[in-house]
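queue> pop job 88
queue> type: inverse folding (structure -> sequence)
queue> payload:
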């Protein structure tokens, strides 16, 4: 299991925007692994 903090996700969103086709596979991978609970965001940071 991998854990993200809020700043990591904001950094990724700002620097690797989902609307940029070059990063589409990155965001599909994140989405898939979040749904599978391989990637998680801790409750503490999710509230930020």
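queue> result:
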């Amino acid at each position: 299991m991998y854990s993200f903090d809020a700043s990591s996700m904001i950094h990724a969103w700002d620097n690797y925007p989902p609307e940029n086709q070059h990063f589409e596979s990155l965001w599909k991978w994140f989405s898939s692994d979040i749904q599978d609970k391989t990637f998680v965001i801790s409750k503490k940071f999710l509230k930020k």
